[in-house]
Amino acid sequence: MLDHPRGPALLDAVARLLRETLIPQLPPGAVFQARVAANAVDLAAREMRQVADAESQARDRLTALLGHDGDLPTLEAELAARLRRGDINTDHPGLQQHLWATTLAKLAIDQPSYAPYRRTLEQLEQRAGTATDQPQHHPKE
Amino acid sequence: MSITMSAERDTLEAGLTALVRRLLPRGSGITGLQRLSAGATLQTWSFDAVGDAGFQHPLILRRSPGGLRGAESLSLPLEAALIRALAGSGATLAAVVPEVLHTLVPDDALGDGFLMTRVAGETIPRKIQRDEAFAAARPRLVAQMGAALAAIHRADIRTLPALPIRSTAATLANLQRRNEALPQPSVVFEFALRWLHQHQPADPPTLRLVHGDFRLGNLIVGPDGLCTVLDWEIAHLGDPAEDLAWICLPPWRFGQIDQPVAGLGQRAELFDAWQQASGEPIDPARVRWWQALGSLRWGLGCAGMRDWFDSGRDATVERAMIARRVSENELDLLRLLSQETADA
User: Fold this and answer.
1) Separation of CA B114 from chain center
2) Which of B190, B324, B344 has its CB closest to that of A116?
3) Which of A32, A51, A84 to mutate to test the interface with B (most CBs of B within 10 A)?
């Protein structure tokens, strides 16, 4: 129905316009805010590209973990409530795997340059490369 | 927006000019007024008071025009009273606290706030971490931070104004309530809360002054190292391990994640300096517990920005982007609490 370029490509173009053309012309006092705006545009583009897969994978994990289907906000609220009540503990099978996978998928959208996230990805790559006979604790996204 | 801001500035300039004429003998007015922080609730302004024979006094104004503040914050008059008390409580502390010159009164018509002497130096973390001007300061800073924290934690609390008491249990219960009030639950925060409950340390035998936000950004650094500790607004009585952990939070390393202390050095150096200055031992497990609590606290702070944005109280891009930093803290919590990455 819609024609191209679509939302993420438009946002990429807006971010380029901000960084390459507009920011160099701004007075120094406005540059910081404009950089934050360009970062926000990048984030929105990543979200549009990645959110559908990230949410459907999270829903699949939660369905397996909780033993029934549902929409994502309901399943997340249920897991949070069961952890809070203590009928799921921190060592519950599959829980930490789900938390890691969810958090890494969020960082890939929110802040992929965050240094602890970069480090985590490096560690996962090393582990995948060296310890292939060990069961992997953290998922590789 | 810019018309409102310039009107606010004109009003402030007139108010400060009148204040300087009242406070300084033969004071003529002010010059070089500029806003340093863009905070919606707490403003920091820099200016020079012009005194006798044109002599200029470098000053900072900290003010809250509308009185809207975070629930954890001290009132500005109380913050000023605390800083004044610390300045009078011994040479070590006096050397690192700002000099408060005047606490605003209603007749000043400038809102809540206080004036302090402006100290030369740098607060921007990445400049302190990288610029050549601080090359000699960097190897000293971690030990100086440890010694300054020890002095803060050893302050005689009987000489201080009444401060909030935050026991370990009450701090954790407060974060639990804030987490339960979130419109969208974070499963990682629930996970962290369970871990925190299961590993909660006993309260320290005596309550100590805790700064509460001791990190780069709130420290003025000069060519020789630490000059001044700023931003006492969430100071309270509690466990000193809270401060020793907060300075090690991953976001306060500003990218230098292998240097846990402010992106500048190792915990052993901080702890050695603190122990040497205080004569007391540090329990690293207790500091690690407070680091997990700190990541949860900052994560909840980020999550709370959503309400500021949605309600229109501060619907700026900057505020929105802080709200999207929840996941950084979720990652920091997982890295800290998982065996594989437990050295984070």
Assistant:
1) 16
2) B344
3) A84
All CATH 3.90.1200.10 domain ranges in chain B, comma separated: 125-337
pLDDT tens digit at each of 344 positions of chain B: 455 667 888 999 999 999 999 998 888 899 999 988 766 568 899 999 998 888 899 999 999 876 556 667 899 999 999 999 999 988 889 999 999 999 999 999 998 999 999 999 999 999 999 999 999 999 999 999 999 999 999 999 999 999 999 999 999 999 999 999 998 889 999 999 999 999 999 999 899 999 999 999 999 999 999 999 999 999 999 999 999 999 999 999 999 999 999 999 999 999 999 999 999 999 999 999 999 999 999 999 999 999 999 999 889 999 999 999 999 999 999 999 986 555 55
Classify domain B125-337 by CATH number: 3.90.1200.10
Evaluate whether the domain defined by B3-117 bears CATH number 3.90.700. no
C-beta atoms of A36 and B317 within 8 A: yes
Q: Do B317 and A104 touch (CB under 8 A)?
A: no
E strand map for B51-150: 56-64, 100-103, 112-117
**B327·A110 Cβ contact <8 A:** yes
Query: Quick check: B320 and A40 CB within 8 A?
Result: yes
Q: What is the DSSP string of B23-53?
A: HSTT--EEEEEEE----SS-EEEEEEEE-GG
Minimal C-alpha gap between B331 and chain A (Å): 6
A55 and chain B: CB distance < 8 Å anywhere? no
State the span(s) of chain B assigned CATH 3.30.200: 3-117
Would the CB atoms of A90 and B194 count as touching at under 8 Å? yes
Mind spelling out the 3-state secondary structure of B96-108?
A: CCCCEEEECCHHH
Q: How far is A3 from chain B (nearest CA, A)?
A: 28
**pLDDT, tens digit, 9 for 90 and up, residues B79-138:** 999 999 999 988 889 999 999 999 999 999 998 999 999 999 999 999 999 999 999 999
- Least Cα distance to B244 among B273, B207, B271 occurs for B271
Strand pairing of B225-229 and B43-50?
A: unpaired
Burial grade of B39 (CB within 10 A; 0-12, 13-18, 19 or more): exposed
Task: Give the bridge partners for B43, in sequence order.
Answer: B63
Is A116's Cβ below 8 Å from some Cβ in B? yes
Q: Contacts of residue B343 in chain A, CB cutoff 8 Å?
A: none
